[in-house]
Design brief:
heterodimer; A: alpha/beta; Urease, subunit C, domain 1; TIM Barrel; eight-stranded mixed beta sheet; eight-stranded parallel beta sheet; 14 helices; globular; B: alpha/beta; Rossmann fold; five-stranded parallel beta sheet; 11 helices; about 15% strand
Chain lengths: ~450, ~325
């Protein structure tokens, strides 16, 4: 199946003048590039990589990038942009600004809005809004079932025709194996990836955090790891039987990593994602009873965290996804059990992973860079590449910069970050999408060549 | 100590200090005039979002015995039922400049949250299934009076551990005082990972004879509908404390209210082994001691509401108001 350009998703495109990123360390592990270059960006493409200081900017805007990393821009296959219906939490404009500030050149928006995105008209309307409001390309997933109630299939052919990039009931599982199987059969007709929130509600019901020592101590109802892994096993078996293409959203538990690995070994067409918070935090954080650490799936135990990291390294888990889930302050400033599930993530994903995994030497920078954009491939989009001739999707990062997350405010409309207040290392200074500057960090002096 | 939120935050020395203060209030309680002026002119708000008889009445009476003004608010009919958030309710009540807010909530962490929104001392009178520190302190006090010390004593906590804040606080308090704690109940009602609190787990009562103290928990009938136990009858067969299981040397406790014939047989409730009535009596003096510790105790951190000059003038306990 041939992939399509990220810039073909919906966004507010403009004509960029073109750029020269001078003297950056160009790092594209997939393309085998790691050397200082001037990156010449013209007509929305990487025109050429030349020796540092040798490019003549001419009409192009020169950007002093010495000491900075030029990376293939990131792609987030899993964000909640909240439109329509929950614009008090986020909308396409604020959500894509947050994405751009995090170094993302594309995001996929989940359909659990109000009303849910379960009809072609909703997809059309969202794409028109994104054409006006989105500073980076946005793809919209549609619901698998009408009203996300898990009972009847949406009009999947119409939705695909309208531009839905895939299907998901994210936020909820598809509890009925019969209904999910029908969706898999229909996928043969319409295409599109089925992105699955894996959770057996019979096992997780009323749970608000990971079931383990911490939930036992706090007296909070637990969500056992097996509520996730048993559903992955079920759906992998169904996908094998129907030869369906499935993507497992936000894997959180050791048993789940094992279930995905078994499915891949068996030849099931499955990809999987993991979030920064599951890679970096555990249920120990919940001892604070701070609702910033409440999300679904929940933060799990250290053993799970280690398994997720191993899974990301080995490729069992294909990509990093944020599951950016903005909520208003009043939805989080309540007792833990009452609080909304979810945390923001677009603006901190790279820096948090860089700070806690790359700087201490736990994860190679090359591997992180590769996994930050691999979500595009999972949904059949071109993975950003810095090799000349590719669409210019580039993120400039200062690997030495330190910043306090949230101290200068957020681009997102919401503040429910589990990294707020943390001192982070490595900062996105600029995001280029198809040659167009989607984001510049305020203090990053631009435009004047040294 | 500024707040009492969880036994988890208490050192053994804190517990012992409160026990000793409670002893002195017990002495006051034997006088004709049982009231002392310690908290005269100060306001205590009781904010109860769950039904409670003994805890709320005990806190109310404790505050009155210390001469505080008391406002008691229950969720039924209050602004909380009209959709007001906990934060706004606390902000409103804080306008009365209370010295302390005593809060009971069906949600874990509610008391802790309230500390961010008020300058008053906050006392957790039960937060969800998390903790119930004043209950643990009064239980510890009751046992100390009977046993002298908890050091090396074996205490079995029996029943629905999963849904019990009393169990969690008591495991921590009894452990802090040097006791060995075993929790016992059906595997469906003993949460995975509870051992991390420092107790051992036994799914049967076969070895309950080793216990110096048997602490029975309340078994709620609705647990049956949720498939935690197949039937109350079968539960009672396996876990009810009765005269057959309880030997004369063993002490029996229960946080109340008791389901007669479920977790406890009638013959043990009123037996000489039973400390249940003493627990209720202890509740009053221990809650007086908690209020004293937070509002008049010497080790209180000087927050904006600390009034050292007034505290210095406060008459010693024991002088009638």
């Amino acid at each position: 199946m041939s992939a399509v350009a990220i810039s073909s998703l919906s966004w507010r495109r403009a004509d960029g003048a073109g750029l020269v990123l001078r003297g950056a360390r160009v790092l594209d592990p997939r393309a085998g590039i790691d050397a200082p270059h001037d990156v010449v960006i013209r007509d929305g493409e990487i025109a050429e990589l030349v020796a540092p200081g040798s490019a003549d900017p001419g009409e192009l805007e020169p950007v002093d990038a010495e000491g900075l990393l030029a990376l293939p821009a990131f792609f987030d296959p899993h964000a909640h942009l909240r439109a329509p219906g929950h614009e008090h939490k986020e909308d396409l404009e604020t959500g894509t600004r947050a994405a751009a500030a995090g170094g993302y050149c594309g995001v996929l928006a989940m359909p659990n809005t109000d009303p849910p995105v379960d009809g072609a008209a909703a997809i059309h309307a969202l794409r028109r809004r994104a054409d006006r409001e989105a500073s980076v390309p946005v793809g919209f997933l549609a619901a698998i079932t009408r009203g996300m109630s898990g009972e009847e299939l949406t009009e999947m052919a119409d939705l695909r025709e309208a531009g839905a990039v895939g299907f998901t009931d994210d936020g909820w599982p598809v509890p009925s194996a019969r209904v999910l199987r029908r969706a898999m059969q229909y996928q043969r007709l319409v295409g599109g990836v089925l992105a699955l929130h894996e959770e057996d509600p019979e096992l997780s019901r009323r749970g608000v955090m990971h079931e383990g020592e911490v939930s036992a101590a706090l007296g909070l109802a637990g969500i056992p790891s097996v509520s996730e892994s048993t559903m992955i096993a079920r759906d992998a078996a169904l996908a094998a039987y129907e030869d369906a293409r499935v993507h497992v959203l936000h894997v959180s538990a050791r048993e789940s990593v094992e279930a995905v690995a078994r499915a891949k070994q068996a030849g099931v067409r499955v990809t999987a994602e993991v979030t920064p918070h599951h890679l970096l935090l555990t249920d120990e954080e919940v001892r604070s009873l701070d609702a910033r650490f409440k999300m679904n799936p929940p933060l799990r135990a250290e053993d799970d965290r280690a398994a997720l990291l191993d899974g990301l390294r080995s490729g069992t888990i294909d990509c990093v996804a944020t599951d950016h889930a903005p909520h208003a302050t009043e939805e989080k400033e309540v007792p833990f059990e009452e609080a909304a599930m979810g945390v923001t993530g677009l603006e901190t994903a790279f820096s948090a992973l860089y700070t806690d995994l790359v700087v201490p030497g736990v994860l190679e920078l090359e591997l992180l860079v590769e996994r930050m954009s691999a979500g595009a491939a999972a949904f059949e989009y071109d993975v950003p590449s810095l090799r000349p001739g590719n669409e210019a999707n580039v993120t400039l990062v200062d690997p030495e910069a330190e910043w306090d997350a949230g101290a200068e405010g957020w681009e997102s409309r919401s503040k429910n970050s589990c990294f707020a207040g943390r001192r982070l290392r490595g900062r996105v200074l600029m995001t280029v999408v198809a040659g167009q500057v989607a984001y510049r960090q305020r203090s990053f002096a631009m435009g004047v060549a040294a | 100590m500024k707040h009492l939120l969880a036994v988890e935050h208490l050192e053994r020395a804190d517990i012992e200090r409160i026990m000793e203060r409670a002893e002195s209030f017990a002495e006051v309680g034997r006088r004709d005039i049982k009231k002392v002026p310690t908290l005269r002119g100060r306001t205590i708000v009781n904010l109860f979002f769950e039904a409670s008889t003994r805890t709320s009445s005990s806190f109310e009476l404790a505050a009155k015995r210390l001469s505080a003004d008391v406002v008691s608010i229950r969720s039924a009919g209050s602004s909380v039922d009209k959709g007001e958030s906990l934060k706004d309710t606390v902000a409103t009540l804080s306008a009365y400049d209370p010295a302390a807010i005593v809060i009971r909530s069906p949600h874990a962490g509610a008391a802790e949250l309230v500390t961010h929104w008020t300058e008053a001392s906050v006392i957790n009178a039960g937060d969800g299934k998390h903790e119930h520190p004043s209950q643990a302190l009064l239980d510890t006090y009751t046992l100390r009076r009977r046993l002298g010390s908890l050091e090396g004593k074996r205490i079995w906590i029996v029943g629905d551990v999963m849904h019990s804040r009393v169990a969690r606080s008591n495991i921590l308090a009894f452990r802090a005082m040097g006791a060995e704690v075993t929790v016992s109940g059906p595997p469906t009602l003993v949460p995975r990972g509870i051992e991390a609190l420092g107790c051992t787990v036994s799914y049967t009562l076969d070895a309950v004879g080793e216990a110096d103290v048997v602490y029975a928990l309340r078994m709620q009938r609705e647990r049956m509908g949720e498939s935690f136990v197949p039937s109350i009858r079968e539960y009672a067969v396996n876990y009810q404390i009765d005269a057959r299981r309880l030997t004369p040397r063993q002490l029996l406790m229960h946080p109340g209210p008791v389901n007669r014939g479920v977790e406890l047989a009638a013959d043990v409730i009123d037996s000489p082994n039973s400390l249940i009535a003493e627990q209720v009596q202890s509740g009053l003096v221990v809650r007086m001691a908690i209020l004293y510790e937070l509002l008049a105790g010497g080790e209180r951190a000087g927050g904006p509401r600390a009034r050292p000059e007034e505290l210095a003038e406060a008459p010693p306990i024991g002088e009638p108001a």
